[in-house]
Amino acid sequence: MQKKIVALPKLNNLTPTMESTALKLMEEAGELAQAIGKLRGMSGERRTVGEREALARITRELLDVAQTAVSMMFVLEEHYGVSIEKALDEHIKKLIQKGYLVPGEGNTE
């Protein structure tokens, strides 16, 4: 199975809650959608930056989404006793059951 592994730090200058992190995640996802919309001209605005700069902005926004998602994982583990490792295993099994991953085609499952 081909993987993209990104290790993001626990932010140590914040005191996030599940609710504040969920709201931040939605905010960051909105910024990502806005950046993509501007690249594709979906907002009705003229493109003011080139494709390379637009893709760089999309990448930055995507990493903001990922960082916030990782922050929520820390909150779930530390405040609610959730095992992200176990949940990840269950997530992979669900992907296989839905046919998004096929065992035996480069997968380790």
Average pLDDT confidence is 90
Order of helices and strands: HHH
DSSP helical segment count: 3
Using only CA atoms, what is the Rg? 17 Å
Percent of residues in helices comes to 55-70%
N- to C-terminal distance: 8 Å
| Main structural class | mainly alpha
What percent of residues are in strands?
A: under 5%
Major beta sheet summary = none
Primary descriptors:
single chain, 109 residues, mainly alpha, 61% helix, 0% strand
Quick structural overview:
This protein is mainly alpha-helical and 109 residues long.
Can you describe what's shown?
The mean pLDDT is 90. The chain has helices at residues 18-40, 51-80, 84-97. The longest helix has 30 residues, at 51-80. The protein has three helices and no strands. With 109 residues, the protein is mainly α.
Summarize the SSE layout with pairings.
Elements lengths: L17 H23 L10 H30 L3 H14 L12
